[in-house]
Amino acid sequence: MKLIGSETSPFVRKIAVMLLEKGREFEFVNDPPFEPGSRVVEYNPLGKVPVLIADDGEVFYDSRVIAEYLELQALAPAFLPADRQAALRIRQVEALADGVTEAAATLFRESKRLPEKQDEAWILRQRQKVLHGLDALEKLAQQRALLNAEQLTLADIATGCALGYLNFRRIVPNWCVDRPALIKLAERLFARESFARTMPPHSADTIKN
């Protein structure tokens, strides 16, 4: 199994964390899609990561699709409940966390543009997405049912990667204010070996994802 992506991508990190937690051996190929000479488009016509190449050569892309594929392999531990309705609710929290990540990535890319070319209205809209998403995740983390429960799920992993990306890119640096449940969740997740091993390198601040 081969995982193609960027060391700084939170969506690649989500899949890497899943593979490590499941104890699944894989080869990681660092191929940032924004870098000259990237071959990502050969596997994903959209030119986006992560890309997973299965043992039989079949290619999967988009982190949610790859996560679903990994769950279908029945490798323990499972990060989605067997009940489809319950799994759907977990996947909705995953989508919420991914939405926060996507908005944060948009903010980061916009910050790299020349100041006179930055769209303030667009920046404000993305920032509001991040803040509203974090508020919703905080409520879920406090309830400890779909998020921050005893058993690690895909919702937890996606949320941890979102929070890690906010820290890494210094997007909304005061995100932790008045969000104690998310702070405790982040501390618990970041202490896991899978998150420690997938921490992005701080020397890669110029990579655009």
Automatic annotation (TrEMBL):
Keywords: Transferase. Residues 83-209 form the GST C-terminal domain. GO terms for cellular component: cytoplasm. Residues 1-78 form the GST N-terminal domain. InterPro entries: Glutathione-S-Trfase_C-like, Glutathione-S-Trfase_C_sf, Glutathione_S-Trfase, Glutathione_S-Trfase_N, GST_C, GST_Omega/HSP26, Thioredoxin-like_sf. Signal peptide: none annotated. GO terms for molecular function: transferase activity. This is Glutathione S-transferase. It comes from Serratia oryzae.
